[in-house]
């Protein structure tokens, strides 16, 4: 229990093996920023008004969060779909949430609701996702409907390499119903291997974002799950992504907003084989201390 913290504004709790419940008992405490990481026995977080920023890393659990929350960063270790979490578990009380970051594995398809949810205040959405074979990346297009006032979208992917880059022999590209988005201005996509569903999602965003000023495509992933890495042989996937982005996204770009980070054939053998989650680095530092 956090009580009588009228002056304290930031609390960080990491790897506390005895903590089972975290709550604030006084609605007027001064805590504005809470960080919770790797507390294996923690079963519930209940917070009163005043909190502005929450950073959480660990298993999925009930989150009773105040409506004052504006920034939330979540890394779940045990869910199979971040999209399903947004649609079914994200607290409906977060009426003023502006920035949302989700890190997780994306192993299964989410069941999309018939009526779109509305997160009217979200301005910046950042997704860091490790995709499995059964997930459908195109489902993320639903988020454009769910966050109609979003201005910046980041999708950082680590892909299953069992799928090849898109070619016409793989079938016609799918498209979802058009829902023009009038606020999205900046899009950043990394880990673009040129797979069919990746291309379909990027095209959907490009065609429906009427105020888009920049869409940046980087074939190389910039994130990884704990213990994950890329290898020199993965360079060919980056080359595939570069070729697909140039061929299809540039062709569909009628307003000159798409920029693709160059990756050439001679770069295939020069891939940095280490891609480590920054949270893992901090965990290792704690182990050594």
From TrEMBL:
Start and end residues of each At1g61320/AtMIF1 LRR domain: 1-220
One Pfam family per UniProt: LRR_At1g61320_AtMIF1
Residue ranges of coiled coil: none
Superkingdom of the source species: Eukaryota
InterPro entries: At1g61320/At1g61330-like, LRR_At1g61320_AtMIF1
Protein name as it appears in the record: At1g61320/AtMIF1 LRR domain-containing protein
